[in-house]
Amino acid sequence: MSAAAAATPLTQGLKFIDIGANLTDAVFHGVYRGARKHADDFAQMLERAWQAGMQRIIITAGTLADVHKALALCRQDPRLFTTVGVHPTRAMELEHGGERYLQQLLEVAQANRDKVVAIGELGLDWDRLHFCSKEVQLRWFEAQLVLAEKTGLPLFLHMRNCADDFFPILERNRARFRGGVVHSFDDSEAAVARCQALGLHICINGCSLRTEESLAVVRAIPAALLMLETDAPYCDIKPTHPGHRFVQTLLPTTKPERFELGKCVKGRNEPAHIVQVAEVLAAARREPVAALAAATYENTERLFFSGGGHARSGTATLHDREGAVEAAAAVVAEGVAALSVAGSVTESAHQGRGGGAGGASA
User: Do the beta carbons of residue 116 and residue 92 sit within 8 Å?
Assistant: First the structure.
């Protein structure tokens, strides 16, 4: 199948916003677990997303260093945005850095309001306590809510097997944030109801669609709460997943060791695959893909891009777009060596849910 034939949603006029993509990951530069496997194809990866109907991408930041890398990319393309916050499995950075680290997060969020659209990724993860204890995660989840309180930005939330501790924190702090989204949702219908009561949206990716039980839960989510993401390079929809039978759009793909520039890489999720998330979710909900795509797009626009009076349209002029992808890749290129060294550590922190290039994020 040709790339043009695969990108059918573009010809159908569907529009997407990927609210969670880990674009600072070294795998988009051909580096896996610290070793180079193929040529850098960051620019081509982004171009596939735009061709598949992507209008904007929110880069997920999990540490202060991630934020700075994400902002460097955002400054090169008007369609890229980022979060500011610390992932629960990385909360030891806050434990060591204390209030000064928290203040630095606040300062970078306030200084880049045109590109920072959410506070996060913050929350709790009881599946990966070997990276960070419950005590530390609890302390810094609640402490980071001050960032939302002082900026007025919505929350980008992480919730993994922790609902009984997660929701009470948000419930007693409800006045401190104006809304948000639980990304990579893979919990129960009861959790859906608690999200709705808090005014939180629910974001779906491949990890949200891995079992028949998951497919039943997503049918129960009100359309007004739904958003889409890939969590790239993690959380791809695998052939072993029950929802895979609903995938219609297959992009040309090759194994890393047989890499061909211009093709997707097997096992490495990327933003263009958001089309597949929409297809599976729509089928599970027995809805037309176009209706689902339109609803999730509007939900995302409303939460992240319609408030605060900031110029966040993400609409690029021809001049803006010319060379933007290549420039974005160049910004990161000099940091790839450092990413190569750090890659194995970062990927380890993402392991435990069986998705993507080096485990699963979120």
Answer: no
What pTM, to 2 d.p., does this model score?
0.87
Contacts of 280 (CB under 8 A, 6+ apart): 206, 209, 237, 243, 244, 246, 247
**CB distance 196 to 321 below 8 Å:** no
Is the dihedral angle over the CA atoms 84, 85, 87, 90 positive or is it negative?
positive
**With contact defined as beta carbons under 8 Å apart, do 260 and 254 qualify?**
yes
| φ/ψ (deg, to 5) at 145 | -65, -20
- Residue 307 pLDDT: 66
What order of strands is seen across the sheet that includes strand 155-160?
16-21, 54-59, 80-84, 116-125, 155-160, 180-182, 200-204, 226-228
Secondary structure, 3-state, 102-139: HHHHHHHHHHCCCCEEEEEEEEEECCCCCCCCHHHHHH
The two structure tokens encoding residue 40: 């850098």
CA atoms in the 13 A half-sphere facing the CB of 85: 34
Report phi then psi at 196, rounded to 5.
-60, -40
> Does the N-terminal peptide bond of residue 242 adopt cis geometry, omega within 30 degrees of 0?
no
Per-residue pLDDT of 61-114, as tens digits, reads 999 999 999 999 999 999 999 999 999 999 999 999 999 999 999 999 999 999
* Pair of tokens at residue 190: 């009861």
Q: What is the 3-state secondary structure (H, E, C) of 176-190?
A: HCCCEEECCCCCCHH
Report the C-alpha gap between 324 and 320 in whole angstroms: 7
First-residue to last-residue Cα distance in the chain:
32
What is the DSSP code (8-state) at residue 303? I
Return d(Cα 43, Cα 116) in angstroms, integer: 22
